[in-house]
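Side project, low priority. Logging it here so it doesn't get lost.
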Amino acid sequence: MLRASRFLKKGAGAIARAPAVAASAASPSSHSRIQTRMYSYPSGPDTSEKETIVKLLYNIGSKKEVEQYLGHFSSVESQKFAVIKVGGAVISDDLATLASALTFLNRVGLYPIVVHGAGPQLNKRLEAANIEARYEDGIRITDGPTLAIAREVFASENRKLVEALERLGTRARPITGGVFVADYLNKEKYDRVGKIVRVNREVVESSIRAGCLPILTSLAETPEGQILNVNADIAAGELARVLEPLKIVYLNEKNGLYHGTTGKRIETIHLDE
């Protein structure tokens, strides 16, 4: 079962609030600009299906509770609902449940923005290639061979999630690059690892305008075009800082976000820090 750590925005500072479960730090994904594909699904959620889901919600909670909830989230701009970071283990172990949950949200008119990792899958591929997975300060050292495999792995995992959504009739757009612009975090220490300096929100917003859920990997690129690895947790946070959604949700197998120094679970996140 998937469990989400829910962070509720409060005021301009986007102060977030305590997890019930979530987040893993997985390294980024494959990069190829925006893949262009043809879609044959209807342009928006089916009205009768939406009405059925709303009726189901009425059976779960009181009419007043359901109307307040739906009214609150349906009144915001589509891209303001939620940024969801999905750990690689969730894609490998709970893909069907994840796709079903995202489809449910879309059926009631919402467009969650997904940023995913693929750390476990990347480690398996590196092991198969006899390449040691190396870390410094909890950050994956990303040399040329590691980055080449990472691009393949994250493109593959991105495609899996997009195809799982499409099988459920949910339009989704694979976005494997063009969103995050970065500089080297510390080239001598971490090699091809980036620190995000700018987010191109138009790429995400154009996907939503087309009626597609944006499914992002977290690879970034320098202004000169060098691809850099960026931790997916950090990428999701930077995206949320720009889009200012009502929620930022971290999904993974580790039962929360943990402080890198103290090892304690983080209860509050300030997106403006």
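Brief comment: Residues 103 and 183 are 35 Å apart (CA to CA).
Revisit when time allows.
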